[in-house]
Amino acid sequence: MSDTAHSSMRTQVGIVGAGPAGLMLGHLLHLAGIDSVIVEKHNREHVIERVRAGVLEQGTVDVMVNAGVGDRLLREGMRHGGIYLAFLGQRHRIDFEDLAGASITVYGQNEVVKDLIAARYATGRPLYFEARDVRLSGFEDGQPGIHFRSDEKEHEIACDFIAGCDGFHGVCRPSMPSEKWRAYEREYPFGWLGILANVAPSSGELVYSLHQRGFALFSMRSPSVTRLYLQCAPDESLDAWPDDRIWDELLARLGTADGWRPNRGGILQKNVTGMRSFVAEPMCCGRLFLAGDAAHILPPTGAKGLNLAIADVVILSRALAAFYQDRREDLLDSYSVLCLRRAWRAQRFSWWMTSMLHRAPGGDEFDYRRQIAELDYLMSSRAAMTSLAENYVGLPTEQR
Ligand code: APR
Ligand code: PHB
Question: 16 - beta bridge partners?
């Protein structure tokens, strides 16, 4: 017999993953009086320090504020009423407030996660970091379980439902039998080299630029930290990118004829990410429900990943609340269809922004001129700008 210690517990909803989706779901369930246990593979520092997305739709801000976790976001988040698109050496503004009656808020995903972890601790409800060998069982037979090792103990959580919020590389999606779901996917032939620079942003709003040399994006994290991205190869080695080369390339791709360019400063962090669109259908199997990156990922050009993750868990928390309060299962039954409709609209928008603004490797001049014509048309048409604006600020969350 093994002498490993065992621990068994029971909860209503077992949540795998403490990213924005898992933490926000845990908090929304707490507010509805529903018990949960969150199980996360990495340690707390890792989860908080990963630098990722940074743009929140108004709907996401509203969810945070209404859930009582928006105080710091309202104080420190940077509200932007529009973005710039740059091409042929000129910057052109798209005014979200005028066109779509809404704005966006720049607030790092790691800040969102920090606020949600603090809120979780304040509830006293369980959150396990550094859970090893996480495994699911019984979700097709009405007896869901989550198993993992931590502190030299084998843990077993019996629950009514499992929420798979463990991101694209997690265990939940691959636990679904392959004949019960399918993937729709597109890989793009480029990636983004991202940097965090210790310097004040030189523009109050984001700048998306299509340049002969490739795409570049100017963003920010705070009044003293700039976030910048360059289109690169999906498997680009950072060794080929000393700081000076990064800055030269950023300035070449972003600088405009009016003299605007990003401020140069010390590089705090660099990373390369590939780009992919992915959707799993359906987003559930028995009593397992996927949410966020576990179910879908998008190229970052539309800034939709984090917002979609929050929209999923709002819908899931409502469905679970209807189950526990009124024994209604209809909202759980329609969860996947409702989320997928929004996810596909976000995929469409992100694919469109990505194709309009990136140069295909070895791309021909026809494509570049067509892309410039698309941007030129966009800036000349209020209808086209409105379409971009309403998608960027976020479509309303579907109700049922
Ligand atoms: N067991 C437990 N936790 C796991 C496992 C596992 N086997 N695998 C992964 N995780 C954890 C990860 O360590 C991570 O903390 O699940 C969490 C998933 O978080 P995210 O990847 O941030 O996904 P999500 O919460 O859906 O948020 C989506 O992330 O990639 C961005 O742009 C995307 O902003 C969007 C957001
Ligand atoms: C970011 O600030 O990290 C960011 C902003 C806009 C995007 C993607 C990323 O489209």
Answer: 39, 164
Element (H, E) at 47: helix 44-49
Helix (H, G, I), strand (E, B) or coil at 365: helix
User: pLDDT tens digit string along 211-250?
Assistant: 999 999 999 999 999 999 999 999 999 999 999 999 999 9
Strand partners, 198: 266
Q: What is the CA radius of gyration of the chain?
A: 22
Q: Exposure of 255 by Cβ count < 10 A (0-12 exposed, 13-18 middle, 19+ buried)?
A: middle
User: What Cα–Cα distance (Å) separates residue 128 from each residue in 159, 167, 313?
Assistant: 16, 17, 20
Query: Which residue ranges have their beta carbon within 6 Å of ligand 1?
Result: 16-22, 39-42, 47, 52-53, 109, 131, 134, 165-167, 169-171, 292-294, 305-306, 309
Tokens of 208: 């998306």
Q: Look up residue 2 and give its two tokens.
A: 């093994």
Strands in 104-106's sheet, in edge-to-edge order, are 55-57, 104-106, 78-80
Q: Do the Cβ atoms of 13 and 320 come closer than 8 Å?
A: yes
Contact present, 76 and 111 (Cβ < 8 Å): yes
Give residue-wise pLDDT tens across range 189-222: 999 999 999 999 999 999 999 999 999 999 999 9
Report the C-alpha gap between 81 and 64 in whole angstroms.
Answer: 19
Check residue 238 and report its DSSP letter. Answer: G
What single-letter DSSP state applies at residue 151?
T
Atom of ligand 2 lying closest to residue 302 CA? 10
Choose among 6, 13, 10, 1: nearest CA to 321. Answer: 13
Ligand 1 atom, smallest distance to 293 CA: 26
Question: Rounded CA gap, 127 and 109, in Å?
Answer: 19
Place of tokens 């790691």: 110
Maximum alpha-carbon separation in the chain: 75
- The amino acid at 189: P
CA dist 79 → 181, 223, 262, 289, 350 (Å): 39, 12, 19, 33, 21
